[in-house]
Design a protein that fits this description.
With 240 residues, the chain is mainly α. Helix content is 63%, strand content 5%. The protein has two domains: 75 residues, Glutaredoxin, CATH 3.40.30; 157 residues. The protein contains ten helices and four strands. Strand 1 and strand 2 form a beta hairpin. It starts with a strand and ends with a helix.
């Protein structure tokens, strides 16, 4: 549908995908709401765009991706994904390597490893802070402290962000280390109980309230990283 102030993004994506697959596209934009409603009624569909190859109706953009074997059929698609955490950890690692190179002239440094963890904490906190209410609701499914004190679910993202930023700066370790150690320990115990003792299949709130990341090893890793930093940073400051 193409109207003043609105261009259908899925129409553009469908057209682009067809052209990349070698098809010559005959585009029929729907310019008004009335045209769109009439089209949907005629073809018995509830959404636009609709792609036709020859006389065969393929469907919308998602159907087109399935048609070209880019995605599996809907019944075979998983409702969970690790893509968000892979993206976050990858970017955090690259940032840490870049900072290490800039500061020390080498990508492989102890400080670079610390930056990787603290930056991961900070980025994960940003994900949660986008929708604190949604995060706190999902968090209640498994966090033991949040179940006792509901407000903890709204405090947690700020604590994680504070610890991550301060540890990245190497400042106020007397504050950041206990915060990281506390929330990491509570989180690790909660995740371990929910996943490995109670055998529950839940979504992880680690990347926000609308997460499709399964609760499990990734969630436990996030908390173990905070525990490590909560112990290691003060030790390094005192002994190294």
């Amino acid at each position: 549908m193409v109207m003043p102030g609105h261009v259908c993004p899925y129409g553009l994506k469908s057209k682009d995908l067809l052209e990349r697959q070698g098809f010559e596209v005959e585009d029929h934009p729907l310019d008004t709401r009335e045209d769109t409603d009439a089209f949907m009624e005629k073809h018995g569909v509830e959404t636009t765009p609709q792609t036709f190859i020859g006389d065969e109706r393929i469907g919308g953009y998602d159907d087109l991706r399935v048609f070209f074997d880019i995605d599996p059929p809907e019944e075979e698609q998983s409702d969970t994904t690790y893509q968000p955490v892979i993206a976050i950890f990858s970017v955090a690692a690259l940032l840490a390597l870049g900072l290490s190179w800039h500061q020390y002239g080498s990508v492989l440094t102890l400080r670079g490893f610390e930056w990787f963890i603290s930056l991961s904490m900070t980025i994960l906190a940003i994900q949660k802070l986008q929708d604190v209410e949604g995060f706190s609701t999902m968090f209640l499914n498994y966090d033991l402290l949040a179940r006792k004190w509901v407000r903890y679910g709204k405090v947690y993202p700020f604590g994680e962000a504070l610890a991550g930023v301060l540890m990245t700066a190497g400042a106020l370790l007397w504050l950041s280390a206990p915060v990281a150690l506390f929330i990491g320990t509570v989180g690790a115990v909660s995740v371990f109980k929910a996943v490995y003792i109670d055998k529950r299949e839940l979504k992880c709130a680690c990347v926000g309230g609308d997460s499709s990341v399964p609760l499990g090893f990734i969630s436990l890793t996030e908390n173990l990283m905070m525990i490590f930093m909560g112990i290691w940073m003060p030790v390094r400051a005192i002994w190294f």
